[in-house]
Design goal:
Blueprint lengths: L1 E5 L6 E7 L9 H12 L7 H4 L4 E5 L1 E2 L2 E2 L4 E6 L21 H4 L11 H8 L5 H7 L4 H17 L3 E9 L2 E2 L8 H10 L7 H16 L6 E8 L15 H10 L4 E6 L17 E4 L3 E4 L7 E2 L2 E2 L4 E7 L9 E4 L6 E4 L9 H23 L5 H17 L1
Antiparallel strand pairs: 1-2, 2-6, 3-6, 4-5, 7-8, 7-9, 9-15, 10-15, 11-12, 13-14, 16-17
Bound molecules: ligand EPS.
Length: 390
């Protein structure tokens, strides 16, 4: 399974084309729209989110609510485009002294793709870089992830992402009764946090950052339950599922780190307190008594919940200026902006959930006979039986 995305932040629309989804799987626009709206929520977003109300159009690959096996094209229009038709227009500009040309960006913002992208592609107007490097693109990554989530859900695999840290405020480890409960509580939290006290402190930290013209980052965690054991592989580096999950998390805008299970904590503990003991019960088959390795051993699923965490750095578009250099004059200047998000960690949690969903669904489609959804479902059930009775 694969997908590409296209679209600029202030262009007419964002597009994704998904290939390899099994045929005969139920899929409707609402499955995708509900995920798009989850990504748009969250305390700390800037004014742009008031302009956009993301809604998908399914323009191919689905008929009468079922996938066809052909490429699925998903389109989300940018409402803001109407204010940018001049600056972002596709046709050549006749008048080189026009407002659109004069508004060229020659001042790279520290922490963004601006300068490196301009050097790489030879753009003297860095709008040509920032329009595509913008995290607006994550809208259609969530759309693709929503289709993957639907596939997983129909196979009995559920995922939830939540926020465990923002701006140094950590959620206390609290046991949740079920994934369903974690979902319900975090969905109602403006910062997507299970711990209400930490959630309140996170919001205060976001307010502080905003007041100081600053931004803050955090840590998100994705938990997936129901994956059968033995998905992924140990036989080749590029078939290891943990490697694919790590790459997926690291590909999200502003993510600088990833952990699976106890992650970096494993460096500080002896082996006896890292590895999970194996047990067996008639009903359940094999399981681990703990899940410190986050559901993955040897690049494959163990059948235990998959636990992946990602670190998002603070958004680099700051009201509080950082020093940079104008690429035309080579003069130093203080980078300042018109609008930004003080914190996008709650939204990034939904993106993380989407990219993890994509990798899990993709690993399943790769490994089992997946041209048809009904045969895929039967193969997954058989895999679960085999793993239990092994
Ligand atoms: C973003 C900058 C802001 C964010 C945007 C990501 O947009 P603008 O430049 O229009 O104010 O709002 O995020 C989204 C539009 C979105 O849908 O998440 C950036 O530079 O990455």
């Amino acid at each position: 399974m694969r997908y590409l995305t296209a679209g600029e932040s202030h262009g007419p629309q964002l597009t994704t084309i998904i290939e390899g989804m099994p045929a005969g799987m139920p899929l409707v626009a609402e499955d995708i729209n509900k995920e798009l709206s989850r990504r748009q929520k969250g305390y700390g977003r800037g004014r742009r989110m008031q302009i956009e109300k993301d809604q998908v159009q399914i323009t191919s690959g689905v008929r009468h609510g079922q996938t066809l096996g052909s490429p699925i094209a998903l389109v989300v229009e940018n409402n803001d485009w109407k204010h940018w038709t001049g600056i972002m227009g596709q046709e050549p500009l006749d008048d080189q002294s026009s407002e659109e040309v004069k508004r060229k960006i020659s001042r790279p913002r520290p922490g963004h793709a601006d300068l490196n992208g301009a050097i790489k592609y030879g753009h003297r107007d860095m709008r040509n870089v920032l329009e595509r490097s913008s995290a607006r693109e994550t809208t259609v990554r969530v759309a693709a992830g929503a289709a993957a989530k639907k596939l997983l859900s129909l196979l009995g695999i559920e995922l939830v992402a939540h926020v465990v840290e923002i701006g140094g405020v950590k959620a206390e480890k609290q046991a949740f009764a079920s994934l369903e409960q974690l979902k319900e509580v975090t969905e109602a939290s403006p910062v997507r946090c299970f711990d209400p006290d930490a959630g309140t402190k996170m919001m205060a930290a976001i307010d502080d950052a905003k007041q100081n013209g600053d931004s803050i980052g955090g840590v998100v965690e994705v938990i997936a339950e129901g994956m059968p054991a033995g998905v992924g592989s140990y036989v080749q580096y590029d078939r290891k599922l943990d490697g694919k999950l790590a790459a997926a998390i690291m590909s999200i805008n502003a993510f600088k780190g990833v952990e699976i299970g106890i992650g970096f904590e494993a460096a500080r503990r002896p082996g006896s307190q890292v590895h999970d003991e194996i047990a067996w019960e008639e009903e359940r088959g094999y399981y681990r008594k703990t899940n410190r390795l986050g559901g993955l051993e040897g690049g494959m699923t163990t059948g235990m919940p998959i636990v992946v965490r990602g670190v998002m750095k603070p958004i680099p578009t700051l009201y509080k200026p950082l020093m940079s250099v104008d690429i035309d004059s080579k003069e130093p200047f203080a980078a300042s902006i018109e609008r930004s998000d003080a914190c996008a960690v709650p939204a990034a949690a939904v993106v993380a959930e989407s990219v993890v969903a994509w990798e899990l669904a993709s690993a399943i489609v790769d490994q089992f006979y997946a041209d048809r959804f009904d045969t895929l479902k039967a193969s997954i059930e058989e895999q679960r039986r085999n793993a239990r009775d092994f």
